[in-house]
Write a structure and sequence with these properties.
31% helix, two-stranded antiparallel sheet, 406 residues, Cathepsin B, Chain A, 12 helices, alpha+beta
């Protein structure tokens, strides 16, 4: 089963991944210039992408060996909201969001007697919940690297947290003591560090809530949308995916409306938080594109693109490159396709990323330009071009600023 949580696929590899556009080498000035049009051929992929609409974004980051893509994509969307409104580039702490979510997750896990998912994954709503209830912290005040590593690596910590909770839950005393939560927080303190009550930012002192107010961030401005027929359209429902442990709701709309919402938001200058399946063999991270060919090839269908390639040397990667060498005829996706692949677990909650704009290939086909959190060492410096058919079938949900929906 492909249920790895938003972000766990990236974790599996810890590779040097990521990169972006085929066309706008951006981010050199700290963010992508809006509506930057560049045309740069990359003969190694067979695709030539031209950026049509690109919204300002902050630099690509690296979640490395942590299942926190949901935090990276959610934080990226908040950073871009600040950049759009204030013209200020801010670097917010993903690990603050992860830490606060772990505490809430632990409380719920114990109340549910261990019958809900307790893992590294999460969703866009977790970031918004933390913002709304606890505030926000800049990266410089809380890096979450308190355990001798230069990059995030959460395997050990995640295992320790889960083992601790299960040991407490199995206590023969049949009741919890007043110390269990402090013990749990002690593990988080050891790995991620204690959360500062106050911190300095540009010469001023803030609490997390004061800092969120300074940035002008409003969690209630962001809405989640999805598109499945096992619930009525026009109503919100709890999306049944393992990492939706907060049981947050998404508005259910027809597939065409979901695409219209995304396109409208992009045209109005907003980025879109994208939860999607990336386990298709034609999600080619290193090559910088994702498509759904009309005719499936005999490529290895096991596991995710990233998980497969982490086991290969650079020389092997060259040999294993996709048989797709440029634009191909793609499947026409229907609402029934979306439902079928969700129900049979072909479309699963693998990863969270951010759609920053759209582009076309050399034949005029349209793609979404997507910012990832797998570092910048791939063909487009941390970005990937995702075809419209791939988006239509493999989207789990999107989170959009409500001002971009109107």
């Amino acid at each position: 089963m492909k249920r790895f949580a938003f972000g766990m696929l990236a974790v599996a590899a810890a590779l040097p991944v990521m990169a972006t556009d085929m066309i706008a080498p951006a981010l050199r000035a700290g963010y992508v210039a809006a509506d930057e049009d560049k045309d740069e051929k990359n003969d190694s992929t067979g695709f030539v992408f031209t950026d049509v609409k690109i919204n300002p974004t902050t630099p690509v980051k690296d979640q490395n060996k942590s299942g926190t893509c949901w935090a990276f994509s959610g934080i990226s969307q908040l950073e871009e909201d600040v950049l759009r409104r204030k013209g200020e580039e801010v670097d917010l702490s993903e690990m603050y969001v992860a830490r606060m979510s772990y505490i809430d997750k632990a409380k719920k896990y114990m109340r549910m007697d261990g019958t809900i998912n307790f893992a590294q994954g999460g969703g866009a709503y977790d970031v918004l919940y933390v913002l709304d209830n606890y505030g926000m912290i800049p990266e410089e005040a809380y890096t979450g690297l308190n355990y001798g590593e230069e990059k995030h690596s959460h395997y050990e910590m995640a295992g320790a947290l889960k083992a601790y909770l299960d040991a407490v839950r199995q206590n023969p005393n049949k009741r919890l003591t007043t110390a269990w939560l402090a013990g749990f927080e002690g593990i988080l303190d050891a790995y991620l560090g204690k959360v500062p009550e106050k911190f300095e930012y540009k010469g001023k002192t803030y609490t997390p809530k004061e800092f969120a107010k300074y940035l002008g961030l409003d969690a209630k401005k962001f809405k989640s949308y999805t598109s499945y027929t096992h619930h009525p359209f026009g109503e919100s429902f709890i999306l049944e995916i393992p990492d939706n442990w907060r049981w947050s709701q998404s508005m259910n709309v027809p597939m065409e409306e979901l695409k219209r919402i995304v396109d409208n938001a992009l045209d109005k200058g907003f980025t879109v938080n994208w939860a999607a399946d990336v386990s298709e063999p034609t999600f080619k991270w290193y090559e910088g594109w994702a498509v759904l060919p009309e005719e499936k090839s005999a490529e290895d269908m096991e596991g995710s693109e990233l998980a497969r390639w982490t086991k290969l040397s650079d020389a092997d990667r060259e040999k294993e490159k996709s048989k797709v060498t440029g634009p191909v005829k793609e499947r026409k996706i229907t609402q029934e396709d979306r439902q079928r692949t969700f129900d049979n677990l072909e479309t699963t909650d693998d990863h969270g990323m951010v759609i920053i704009g759209y582009a076309t290939d050399q034949e005029g086909n349209r793609y979404y330009k997507v910012k990832n959190s797998w570092d910048t060492n791939q063909v487009y410096d941390g970005y990937i071009y995702v075809s419209e058919p791939y988006f239509l079938e493999k989207t789990i949900s999107v989170t959009v600023n409500e001002d971009g929906v109107k």
